[in-house]
Amino acid sequence: MPLAGSHTNLAASWISVQNGSSASIITWTVSGHSTSGNLTESSLDRSGLNVTTNTYSFTGVISGSSVTLNFSSGSTITGIVSTQQLQLQIANSQGTVQSFNFVPGTSSAYNAAVKSIQLVVNSNQKTSTRESAINDAAQSVSSDVSSISSDISNLKGYVPVLGSDLNSLVGDVQTTKNDAAVVTQDVSSNNGNACDDAYSVQDDAYSVQDDMYSLQDDESTANSYLSSLKQVLSSLPSDWSTYQRASSTMPSYTSQYAVTPSREQSALTQGSSESSQFSANEAQVTASAQSLLNQANQIAASAMTEASNGTSGGC
After folding, report:
1. Could you give phi then psi for residue 173, rounded to 5 degrees?
2. What is the structure's pLDDT at 95?
3. Which of 14, 206, 236, 296 is most open to solvent, judged by the fewest CB atoms within 10 Å of its CB?
C-alpha cells in the first residue's frame, strides 16, 4: 500500500527478474525521507553467450509513494514504492522508458535468478559450439567441392595447351624430315651443300627439343592442378564424415554453407573421372612427344652421317 510519512517498514532489498534474461537487485538504507544504496544488474549480452554484471551506487529521496534515485553516473530514475512493490521508470539505450517492477527479495533470491540466467548462457554456449563445429565442417566440405571444380576447370584448360605443344613437335619433326630430304638431294647432286644442310637438320632437331621443354613446362603446371585435385579427392570423404558427425548433434540446424550428399558425391565422381582422363591423356601426349623427339634426333644423326659420307673430307 502507499506510504505516507515513515518509510522504516520498507524492504531493505528488492529484486526484479525480466524474462529470464536479466535480474536486478536494489539494496538500500532508508532514513527518514532519504535513501542510499546500490543497484546491481546481471543480464545476457547481445550474443547470449555471456552474463554481464554492473553495480551502480545512488542516493535518493522518498516522498510519500514517490521515489527519486540519483546515480553517481549522473542519471536519475523515478518511480513509486509501497511495502509490496517498487516500480521504477528506466530508459533503455535507445531512450525508450520502460517500467521495471521490483518486489521485496533477498540476495539469495537474486543469486538464484542469476544462476538461472547462467544456465541459459551455458545452453547457448553449447548450442553455439555445436553450430560452429557444424559450420566449420561444412565450410571444409564446401571448400573441397569448390577446389575440385576449380582444379577440373584448370586441367581442362591445359588439354588444348598440351595438344598445341604436341602439334608444335609434329610440325618441327616434319621440318626435320623435309630438310633431311634436302641433304639427300645435296649428296645425290654433289652440290657441296650437304654439310651445311645437315647442320640445319640438327637445328631442326634442337627446335623439337625446345618444343619438348615447353611441353614439359606446361605438364608441370598441369600436374600441380592434378596433384591438388587428387589431394582434395582424398580429403573430401574424411571432411564429409566430420560434417556428418557434427550435424548429428543438431539435426534441425541448417549450416550457412550449402552441402548435400549428392553434391559431395557428384564432386567425387566427377573429380575422379577427370583425374583419370587427364592422366591418361597426358601419358599419351608424353609418349607421343618422346617418340617424335627420338625420331627427330635419329633423322638429324642420319642426315649428318649421310652428308659426311657423301662429302669429300666429311663434315
Report:
1. -65, -40
2. 77
3. 206
pLDDT digit string (tens) for 84-96?
A: 999 999 887 677 8
User: Any residues with CB less than 8 A from the CB of 64 and at least 6 apart, and which?
Assistant: 2, 3, 4
Side-chain-side CA neighbours of 306 within 13 Å: the count stands at: 25
One-letter amino acid for residue 207 of the chain:
S
- Four-point Cα dihedral 38, 92, 48, 250, nearest 10: 140
Spatial separation of the C-alpha atoms in residues 121 and 191, rounded to whole Å = 99
Residue 42 CB neighbours (<10 A): 21
Q: What are phi and psi of 26, to 5 degrees?
A: -110, 125
Inter-residue contact 253 to 247 (CB < 8 Å): yes
φ, ψ of residue 94 in degrees (nearest 5): -90, 0
SS3 26: strand
213: nearest Cα among 133, 293, 308: 293
User: What kind of fold does domain 13-105 have according to CATH?
Assistant: Lipocalin (2.40.128)
Chain centroid, CA 228 distance in Å: 17
Q: 3-class DSSP state for residue 1?
A: coil
> CB within 8 A of 11, min separation 6: which ones?
83, 104, 105
Compute CA 109 distance to the chain's CA centroid, rounded to the nearest angstrom: 46
Full-model pTM: 0.73
pLDDT at res. 6: 54
Q: Which tens digit of pLDDT belongs to each residue from 129-146?
A: 999 999 999 999 999 999
Checking if the pLDDT of 224 tops 50, the result is: yes
